[in-house]
Design brief:
The structure is a single chain. The protein is an all-alpha fold. The protein is built from five helices and no strands. Helix 2 (35-46) packs antiparallel against helix 3 and helix 4 (68-86) packs antiparallel against helix 5. The protein is rod-shaped, with a radius of gyration of 34 Å. The termini are far apart. The mean pLDDT is 79.
Length: 104
């Protein structure tokens, strides 16, 4: 009976040791970023140096997929249009002014 008990204990220990060797613990795999997380990371790195409202505006347009050039052109258009209205320009004068203003 003692011999059988020893055989069972030794067999159990060997089975346990074999299982521990066969399946070593692995470090948790790095999680893949979702497309939104990747976009957030990219926009965040591009926004370095911007603060306050400028950063908010940039991050908003960047996360929507808009390029900064579009926003800049829109801002120029608003500014030039406002200036042309303040100067009461009309017709060909307004067109010439808007063209020059938007180029600069």
């Amino acid at each position: 009976m003692r011999t059988q008990l020893r055989v069972v204990v030794v067999a159990s220990l060997l089975a346990f040791a074999a299982g521990a060797v066969a399946a070593p613990q692995q470090a948790p795999a790095k999680k893949d970023l979702t497309p939104q997380q990747q976009r957030m990371s990219t926009c965040n790195s591009q926004a370095a140096g911007k603060k306050g409202d400028e950063r908010k505006t940039f991050m908003s347009s960047c996360l929507k997929g808009e390029s900064p050039a579009k926003t800049t052109q829109q801002d120029k258009m608003k500014s030039c249009n406002k200036d042309a209205s303040a100067k009461s320009l009309k017709g060909d004068e307004r067109k010439a002014y808007m063209s020059t203003c938007l180029k600069g």
